Structures are given as structure tokens and as C-alpha cells.
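Duplicate of #3305? Posting structure anyway:
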């Protein structure tokens, strides 16, 4: 199954890091104004999707001439452009999705984008939000998340939607063994990796897992 990269119209602070992650066989989707990052990286998205109120007509025409498929939706709709992009990626067979530019200055959009992986319809597809040395992934109850980093990297585990129960960590300085993280608690914030690999298992609830590889 393919990997899909979606560029949203939020802030992306590290274009070089995004460039380094891209692979030749990635499927690229731009959620409306996220196409500006495709232009900056000199890549043509397979699809530009949304109400198209954040992309200039000239850029839209240029990408269309280069072969991008344009999917225009009404401005009055029930989903954000990013949700539409994720829906499309999964419908077209994405096995993994990476989001760039999903966070930024608008707090409402940022909160919505952070929580979008929690939608039930996205439960079978891993979704990560990335920018530079930081990445965010959602962990659901009954699952384990593993990652690679380095000693000293920061890992934060933040419960959403209620208590997270049966939290067990490996490879972290502060150990949890069948622990509970209460909604709103900062207990899981700023843990530290002790080696190159770590993991967290969860029995019930949901955890937003944040990895910061360079915490200086």
C-alpha cells in the first residue's frame, strides 16, 4: 500500500526536513493552499482538493497544466479541506499518511487538525503530523506505538477524550507500567528516551504521542 503525503495550508517551518522525507513513490496531495509548499519544493501534487479559496488562480492553472487533478468543493461544506484530503487518500489506497503544514497560527484549525486522526473512519490508517524534528501520532486503545530516535529525545504522552488506561512504556527514563493518564494531566509530558528505540502500549482510551528528536 502506498504512502500519501498531504500538504495543508498551515505553517511548515522546515521545508528541508520535508524534502528529506519525501520518496519517489509517495502520493502527494495538496489541501487547497497547501499547494504553496509543493511549489516551494518544486513538486507537482497528484491532486489539489478543497474549496480553492487559498490558492491563486495562476498557481492553480500552472499545476493543472503540469498534470495535477483539481477537485473543487463548495465553500459551504461539512468538512475542512484537510479532512477531504485524508478521505481521498484513504479512498485511493493510502497505507500511511503524513501531514505537513497541519499546525499554525489559527488555534481552531490547529486543534481540529490535531484531533482529526481520532475520527473513527480514520482508525485503520496510521496518520502522523510532522514538521522538522517533531512529529505527532495518535495511539488507540489495544495498540502499541514504536518509534526510533536517540537518547535524550523528548516523548510526551497526552490523553484525549478521557482517561488513558493501561499505559506501558519501554525505552523511556520515566517508566509507566499499566499506568493511568487522566485527561488534562501533565504527567506524561516531557519524558526522555534512554536509547534509540522506544514504545508505548495502551489498553483503553487514546493518547496523542509527541516525539521531539532535537529538544535543545
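Output from current build:
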Amino acid at each position: 500500500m502506498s504512502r500519501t503525503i498531504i500538504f495543508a495550508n498551515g505553517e511548515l517551518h522546515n521545508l528541508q526536513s520535508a524534502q528529506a522525507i519525501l520518496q519517489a513513490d509517495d502520493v502527494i496531495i495538496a489541501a487547497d493552499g497547501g499547494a504553496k509548499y509543493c511549489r516551494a519544493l518544486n513538486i507537482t501534487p497528484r491532486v489539489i482538493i478543497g474549496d480553492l479559496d487559498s490558492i491563486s488562480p495562476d498557481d492553480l492553472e500552472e499545476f493543472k497544466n503540469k498534470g495535477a487533478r483539481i477537485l473543487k468543493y463548495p465553500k459551504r461544506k461539512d468538512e475542512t479541506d484537510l479532512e477531504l484530503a485524508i478521505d481521498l487518500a484513504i479512498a485511493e489506497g493510502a497505507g500511511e499518511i503524513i501531514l505537513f503544514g497541519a499546525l499554525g497560527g489559527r488555534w481552531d484549525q490547529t486543534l481540529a487538525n490535531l484531533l482529526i486522526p481520532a475520527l473513527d473512519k480514520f482508525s485503520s490508517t496510521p496518520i502522523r503530523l510532522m514538521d522538522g524534528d517533531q512529529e505527532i501520532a495518535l495511539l488507540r486503545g489495544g495498540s502499541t506505538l514504536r518509534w526510533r530516535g536517540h537518547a535524550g529525545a523528548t516523548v510526551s504522552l497526552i490523553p484525549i477524550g478521557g482517561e488513558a488506561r493501561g499505559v506501558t512504556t519501554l525505552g523511556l527514563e520515566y517508566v509507566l507500567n499499566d499506568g493511568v493518564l487522566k485527561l488534562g494531566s501533565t504527567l506524561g509530558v516531557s519524558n526522555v528516551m534512554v536509547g534509540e528505540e522506544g514504545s508505548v502500549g495502551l489498553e483503553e482510551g487514546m493518547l496523542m504521542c509527541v516525539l521531539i528528536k532535537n529538544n535543545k
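Confirmed duplicate; merging threads. The chain has a mean pLDDT of 94. The first strand starts at residue 2 and ends at 7.
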